[in-house]
Write a structure and sequence with these properties.
One of its GO terms (molecular function) is phosphoglucomutase activity. With about 575 residues, the chain is of the alpha/beta class. It is built from 17 helices and 23 strands. The strands form four sheets. Strands 16, 17, 18, 19, 20, 21, 22 and 23 form an eight-stranded antiparallel sheet that branches. A six-stranded mixed sheet has the order 1-5-4-2-3-6, sandwiched between helices. It has a five-stranded mixed sheet with strand order 8-7-9-10-11, with helices on both faces.
Length: about 575
């Protein structure tokens, strides 16, 4: 506690604003628990950058923690590009303080002699990624906490390729940040170096989105879409993209169209949560729409609902959407002709069905750690290869490589193209998905997230993962465990034969069990939230589409048995 108290007292110097000092002193005097939570650690970069609750303290998002990160980034950029005029582009979302924090970040960069392009109003994360290369910038920053609750905000850094920072840059930037004290931050802005941007970049981004996501699907005039931005940034892009691609029957949920950091109409602005799309689904049922699309606040994740075999709107999960979008893109590429350098990609906790599909098409399949920055890194590391598309189970997808992060804008258009064409052909999005199960195997997944907040919660998460590793299960749902993949040690071991393989992926706190029948169970801590996540994947053959409901229930029952075995539900 002494170390925490000393850290807190360091925020009582004249460098900090008077209201900040007053709040810290009040915490010292009156609220030990809150003081601990705010000062027991420093914000760190995770799978999605730096993200946390806003407020005063080293473990909070505020002008000082972001200022220190920006000062460290400024120092690193100046050391890396010694003979260049450095340029950085900044975007921000709808969250409380995002605009003012973005301005603070711009001022720190400008104070260090760096040219800044600052979006004049909120914009999507994919547009920020696009803008880095479009404007010839050395880096990009977006102020967002993605789908987290209203009290959160965050800070993601992009590099010259338009992808999020990855090794070695991330570690070197973090080292630079950690070498600084808060008093090293230069807040003295050079406003001549800050240029506001908007319509010109918007136009370039929208044109590219349409070019990459529009496949001239038939049936657009007869295809009804309900769209919700969930109070976020996608309202600035998706309606226009759909309009230019030829979709006329788009109903926008007006109650959720206005950007609002309180997200007043949803419990969570996360399209992974069915409740977030409930208003849009209800509207779709009311007007007889074919598809619902909803995006998270910074528009990198999309949730989709379509009509199932019974004609009712059903939300498809991230794995299902990824499979169908990738299948469609592979078909388009096959018509053009494969050149032998194509690849698709996903993450180690997403559906193994992606690999089965890659084999069927004869294209390369790459897997990465959780976080789209790793898929972006693949594109940078293999410039001779052609990235077709790829995604992750957590409702993110990327179409081609003009954006180097998950992109709900272009992916929304792609999903509509698939569904409109399927309807015109007498099929549907849902039936096309079932066709994939017949062709490549019926894979079904389930995610369990357990939230543990605060300092004690972090220790609980650490212990849960330790127990999962040190007390390995020998069988799952009657099938023997065959492989244990430990991404902390980079070793995959066949526990039946003793064979070991090296995992050629950066180390991470992830453990995966795989059984003889292909069932997979993965465990990892969230990089952006106080959660531990367990991913269950099962599979079986689907001989014909008519058996879908029966086999789907069998897999659901199997997943439930696994959760019971593991005491997860």
């Amino acid at each position: 506690m002494d170390a925490i108290l000393n850290t807190a007292k360091s925020w009582l110097t004249d460098f900090f604003d008077p209201e900040v000092k007053k709040e810290v002193q009040n915490l010292i005097d009156n609220d030990t628990d809150e003081l601990k939570d705010r000062f027991y650690k420093h914000m760190e970069f995770g799978t999605g950058g730096m993200r946390g609750v806003m407020g005063v303290g080293t473990n909070r998002i505020n002008k000082y923690t972001l200022g220190k990160s920006t000062q460290g980034l400024s120092n690193y950029l100046k050391k890396t590009y010694t003979d260049e005029d450095i340029k950085v582009v900044i975007a921000f979302d709808c969250r409380h303080n995002s605009d003012t924090l973005a301005r603070t970040v711009a001022e720190v960069l400008s104070a260090n002699g760096i040219k800044v392009f600052l979006f004049s109003e909120l914009r999507t994360t994919p547009e920020l990624s696009f803008a880095v290369r479009h404007l010839g910038c050395h880096a990009g920053i977006v102020l967002t906490a993605s789908h987290n609750p209203p009290e959160y905000n965050g800070y993601k850094v992009y590099w010259t390729d338009g992808g999020q920072i990855v090794p070695p840059q991330d570690g070197e930037i973090i080292a630079e940040i950690n070498s600084l004290s808060f008093e090293d931050i230069n807040f003295e802005a050079n406003n001549a170096l800050i240029e506001l941007i908007d319509k010109d970049v918007d136009e370039a981004f929208i044109k590219e989105s349409v070019a990459n996501g529009n496949f001239n699907a038939a049936g657009k005039d007869d295809f009804k879409i309900v769209f919700t931005s969930l109070h976020g940034t996608s309202i600035t892009a998706i309606p226009e993209v759909l309009k230019r691609a030829g979709y006329k029957n788009v109903t926008i949920i007006e109650e959720q169209a206005k950007p609002d950091g309180n997200f007043p109409t949803v419990k969570s602005p996360n399209p992974e949560e069915p409740e977030a799309l409930s208003m849009a689904v209800a509207k779709a049922e009311e007007i007889g729409a074919d598809m619902v699309v909803g995006t998270d606040p910074d528009s990198d994740r999309l949730g989709i609902a379509v009509r199932n075999l019974d004609g009712k709107m059903e939300i498809v999960n991230g794995n299902q959407a990824m499979i169908l979008m990738t299948k469609f893109l592979l078909e388009q590429q096959r018509r053009k002709g494969f050149k032998g350098n194509e690849f698709i990609a996903t993450t180690i906790v997403s559906t193994p069905m992606m690999e089965a599909m890659a084999k069927a098409y004869g294209v390369e399949f790459k897997t990465a750690l959780t976080g789209f920055k790793w898929i972006g890194k693949m594109i940078k590391d293999f410039p001779e290869s052609n990235f077709i598309g790829g995604g992750e189970e957590s409702f993110g997808y990327m179409v081609g490589d003009f954006v180097r992060d998950k992109d709900a804008v272009t992916s929304t258009l792609l999903a509509c193209e698939i569904a409109a064409q399927a309807k015109a052909d007498g099929s549907s999005f849902y039936k096309k998905l079932i066709d994939c199960y017949v062709d490549y195997g019926f894979y079904k997944e389930k995610l369990i997230s357990i939230t543990k907040k605060g300092m004690s919660g972090a220790e609980e998460i650490k212990q849960m993962l330790k127990d999962f590793k040190e007390n390995p299960v020998s069988s799952v749902a009657g099938s023997k465990v065959k492989w244990i993949e430990d991404y902390n040690t980079s070793i995959a071991k066949n526990v039946l034969t003793g064979e070991e393989k090296t995992i050629d992926i950066p180390k991470s706190n992830v453990l995966i069990y795989e059984t003889e029948d292909g069932t997979r169970i993965a465990a990892r801590p969230s990089g952006t939230e106080p959660k531990v996540k367990f991913y269950i994947s099962t599979n079986t053959k689907l001989e014909k589409a008519e058996d879908f409901k029966k086999v789907s229930k069998e897999l659901d029952d199997k997943i439930q048995n696994i959760l019971t075995e593991l005491n997860l539900g």
